[in-house]
Amino acid sequence: MVMSKLRSLLAGTVLAGAVVAGVAAAPAQAATASATTASSYAKHWFEGYSGYGRGESSGHRSYYKGFYYAANGRYYFDVDVWDRDRDRENTYVDFWYHDDRGWHQGRRLVTGGHGTFRFSYSARGGFDGYKFRIGEGLVGHYDWSDYGRRSW
Q1: 75-92: b or e for each residue (b if 16 or more CB lie within 10 Å)?
Q2: For 73-90, how does the pLDDT look when each residue is reduced to its tens digit (9 = 90+)?
Q3: Are 102 and 80 in contact (CB under 8 A)?
Q4: Banded model confidence at residue 144, pLDDT cuts 50, 70, 90
Q5: How far apart are CA 50 and CA 109, in angstroms?
Q6: What is the CATH number of the domain that holds 51?
Q7: In total, how many domains does the chain have?
Q8: What are the pLDDT digits (tens) for 103-123?
Q9: Selection from 85, 31, 30 nearest residue 60 by Cα
């Protein structure tokens, strides 16, 4: 009888230890899984400067910097734009995308100081590239940069 109780006690201790070890391991496994998911999207960086007019230095040019990543069948863009010349003219950033039907103007981002813009496009329809350009000035009279392009 003592031996039977000892076996039962030992089996109960082993079972309780396994349960505790499993409960302790579950949060660690969940944290590892979520960290892996969050870091599995590779960011692709891009940037560009506007042209500049007479009397302006290159340090006063407008500037954009951002990144994109692909996730869940979409392309996500995160772009910061700075108008650095303080001339009361806005800075414009044109975003164009390419798909199976050709090039399309997607967005025009506008700021008079600093702006942060976030947007996304579906990967359906053959989305396979984009281009940005930046300009500043009055409507119809921009100092446009060359396009910065990215295709895959």
Answers
A1: bbbebbbbbbbeeebbbb
A2: 999 999 999 988 777 788
A3: no
A4: confident
A5: 14
A6: 2.60.40
A7: 2
A8: 999 999 999 889 999 999 998
A9: 85
